[in-house]
Amino acid sequence: xxxxxxxxxxxxxxxxxxxxxxxATLPILASTILTNKKITINNIPVxxxxxxxxxLLKTIGSNVKFDRKKKxxxxxxxxxxxxxxxxxxxxxxxxxxxxxxxxxxxxRIAKVSLxxxxxxxxRPIDLHLDALKKMGAKIKIKDGYVxxxxxxxxxxxxxxxxxxxxxxxxxxxxxxxxxxxxxxxxNCAIEPEVEDLIIFLKKIGCKIKRIGKRSLNVLGTNxxxxxxxxxxxxxxxxxxxxxxxxxxxxxxxxxxINPKIILTEIKLLNKMGVKITKKKDHIIVNRTESLKNxxxxxxxxxxxxxxxxxxxxxxxxxxxxxxxxxENIFENRFMHVSELRRMGAKIEIKGNKAKVFGKSKLNGAExxxxxxxxxxxxxxxxxxxxxxxxxxxxxxxxxGYEKIEKKLLKCGAQIxxxx
Length: 419
Ligand code: EPZ
Known about the structure:
It is built from 14 helices and 24 strands. It is α/β, with parallel strands linked by helices. It has two domains: about 5-20 and about 235-419, Enolpyruvate transferase domain (UDP-n-acetylglucosamine1-carboxyvinyl-transferase, Chain); about 20-230, Enolpyruvate transferase domain (UDP-n-acetylglucosamine1-carboxyvinyl-transferase, Chain), CATH 3.65.10. A four-stranded mixed beta sheet has the order 22-23-1-24. Strand 10 (about 160), helix 6 (about 165-180) and strand 11 form a beta-alpha-beta unit. Helix 1 (about 20-30) runs parallel beside helix 7. The longest helix is centred in the middle third of the chain and has 13 residues, at about 165-180. The model has no long low-confidence stretch (mean pLDDT about 95). The site of ligand EPZ has 24 residues, from helix 1, helix 5, helix 6 and helix 12.
C-alpha cells in the first residue's frame, strides 16, 4: 500500500499547470458509446478513474487508444458493443454508471453494476433510473446489477429532476441524444463539466438546446459524426493548488485555466485575504497578510463546490477566529475531520455543519485517506507543520490528481511517495 510523506513549512511558489478535468472526461468517454465514428479527445488527465473508464469501454468492445504522453484518447467503435458493465470495474469508479444511458439508448438493453456507496455517502441513482423509466425503460435491480431494457428504444420525454444531480443530468442527457423524439430536461445540473459534455455531444451531431438556466431541450438523432475535443481544465485541482499557495504564503502562478469558471472560489478566498490576480488563461496567487475567518455553504454550481470543502477547511484552521462550513450535497463528507484532529486541528461537527477554530497549531502525524478529496486535504495539511506527515491509502488520491507530488515538488514542497 503506497504512502505519501510530506515535510511542511515550505512555501508553495512557482508555476503549476492544471490538467484536464476528470469529471468532464468521464461522462464524455461514456457518451462515445453512442457513436461508431472516430473520436479524439485531448487534454485527458492521466488518473486512475480515467484508466478505469477506458478499461470499461475496452471491456465492452470499444476500440480505445490511450496515448498517456500526449494525454489523448482515440475511440473507434467499429463493431456493436457488449452491454454489460461489470462490478469489478464499477466498484472503484462510481461514474461507470454513466454508461447506462448510452448503452440503453443505443442497444436497447444494458446490465450495469450498481455503483455502490462510497465514503462520502450512499450515492443513490434513483434519479437516473426514474428518468430512464419515464423514457420507456424497464428497470430491474437484481444481484447488485441494474437490468435495463427498452425493446422499442427509449422515447423522448419531459423530465424534471427532483433535485440537482450532475450524474443524473449527464446520464439522461446522453440517453436523450439518441432517444426517438424530443426530451425536455428541467432542473439540470450546470456544472462546467456538464457544459463540456454538452459541447462534445453537439460536436458529434447531437441536437441540444439550452432554453433556460437549468433547462435543456434535446431532439434524439442517430446521425452522429467524428470529432476532436479538448477537455475543460480541472477547476477542483485549480482550487486545491490555490489553497496550497494560500496556506504556505507562497506566490503561485496557476496556468491552463479559465478564471471565469471559478469566480465563486476566487471571491471567497479574496474575502479571506488571499490575493488572486486574474489573467485570461492563468491566475497569480499571493498571500501576505493574515487570513480572515469565513462561513461557507456547499451548493450546486455556481455555488461553492463540495469537492473543495475539505481543502478550504484546512485554510480555515489558519484563519483568525471561527469559520463554519455547511455541507449540503453529501451526507457524510467530513471524514477528513477526525484525521485533521489528530494533527491538532480544533473542529466541531454537528450534523452537516463544521465549526473550525482558527489559529490552531498543526503537527505532523500518520494519517489515513478515505476518499479522493479528503486525501488531498491531508496532503495540504501536511504542507503546514515542519514535522513529518505520512498519508496512507493514497490510491484515493491517484484516482483524481495527476502527478500531484511532481507538481508540488516543483513548487518547493518536500514530498515523496513511499513504496
Ligand atoms: C458528481 O458526482 C461528481 N463526480 C462528484 O465529484 C461531485 O462531488 C458531485 O457531482 C457534486 O458536484 C463526477 O462527476 C464523476 P450528484 P454525482 O448526482 O454525479 C444525490 C469527486 O470527488 N443523488 O450531483 O454522483 C446524491 O446522493 C466526486 O470528483 C440522489 O439522491 O453527484 C447527492 O446528495 C465526488 N439520487 C446529490 O444528489 C441520484 O440519483 C448530488 O449528487 C443521484 C444523486
